Amino acid sequence: MNVPIRSAFAAAAATVLAVASTASITGAAQAAWEPLKPVDFVIMAGKGGGADKMARLMQTIVEKHDLSSKPLIPINKPGGSGAEALIHLKQKAGDDHTIMVTLNSFYTTPLRQPALDVDIMTFTPVARMAEDTFLLWVHADSDINTVDEFVEAARAAGNDWIMAGTGKGQEDELLTTFLNNAYDLDMKYVPFKGGGRVAKELAGKNANSTVNNPSEQLGFYEAGKTRPIAAFTPERLELFSDAPTFLELDQDFVYFMQRSVVGAPGMSAEAAAFYQDLFAKVFASDEWQTYRHDKSLYGDLIAGDELKAYWQRERAIHEVMLKEIGEI
Question: Residue 11 carries which DSSP code?
């Protein structure tokens, strides 16, 4: 199962140009519209995971720098691998006061559940804020320090080896399937609601491994409870420099999680311009740039038609992946 390598960190100049371009295009429209009431900031995942942490940081940045006349109100809707959030946003068609933080279930859940009748291309593109990274994690008390040792232990345990993840047919299960196929394993995938819960399951020794994002496992890693042994990135992550990439281990596989903000279908052009300008400012803030660095995030800011093209490309990639594991 091969996935093409996606973009790494953009150069600082590219970031500045992206922010300036968005601001220049949207500035006039933004002046004509501002929220009239608090904005529902829907999160299509549970509390404590990467999407939740990102959304609450962005909310804090907006309030700290007084970027909006009305606050963003985070609302977690993790049910049905994000189906709850997708249906909620679909039903808010034409609403200028509802936006949503997405992850890759934005692609996989509509593909897996066609009865939802959700077309992601109808949603309003606001901003891709980052592409999050994944690592393979084990408990620090295990004797596993390398992927070879992981494979030996997981192969010996067979279906008794528990890989904790978030949701059915989502990114964590896709990565588990890759590992099972690439190394002839039979790990049991057990889904939980939210990456924060998944991280706790590993730290509490209720799971043998996870493929958490850095932001989800970082606290347990720093406390010496968990250990990263390989990264699903093009090159090693600075924070986890001892963990090789799967590319280094002769596996042609790289995978990222989108961290994007979208608006309800049929949102007015004026409101869309306001939110694009708002999140361009959030992206350019010192707080967001520090978070990107500290949490090993990739990707530059994209919005509008470029973001829609990104959705089309990523949906096609995930459709192939889901077909390969028999989910669609």
Answer: P
Nearest residue to 136 via CA among 127, 121, 148, 125: 148
301's tokens: 């800011």
State the Cα–Cα distance between residues 80 and 199, nearest whole angstrom: 20
Which residues are CB-neighbours of 320 under 8 A, at least 6 positions away? none
> What order of strands is seen across the sheet that includes strand 98-102?
72-76, 39-43, 98-102, 257-263, 124-132
Q: Which domains does the chain have, with CATH numbers?
A: 32-132+256-324 (3.40.190.150), 135-231 (3.40.190.10)
Two tokens, residue 145: 């320090």
For 12-53, the DSSP string reads HHHHHHHHHHHHHHHHHHHHH---SSPEEEEESS-TTSHHHH
* 52 vs 42: CA distance, rounded Å: 10
Element (H, E) at 171: helix 171-183
Strands 226-231 and 209-210: unpaired
What is the C-alpha to C-alpha distance for residues 284 and 85, in angstroms, rounded to an integer?
27
CA 273, CA 289: separation in Å to the nearest integer? 22
**Helices and strands per DSSP (H, E), number in the chain:** 11, 10
Q: What is the pLDDT along the chain (328 residues), one digit of tens a residue?
A: 444 433 333 333 344 344 444 444 444 444 579 999 999 999 998 888 889 999 999 999 999 999 999 999 999 999 998 999 999 999 999 999 999 999 999 999 999 999 999 999 999 999 999 999 999 999 999 999 999 999 999 999 999 999 999 878 889 999 999 999 999 999 999 998 888 899 999 999 999 999 999 999 999 999 999 999 999 999 999 999 999 999 999 999 999 999 999 999 999 999 999 999 999 999 999 999 999 999 999 999 999 999 999 999 999 999 999 998 888 8
Contact 305, 91 (CB under 8 A): no
β pairing state of 124-132 and 257-263: antiparallel
What is the longest distance spanned by two Cα atoms in the chain?
Answer: 64
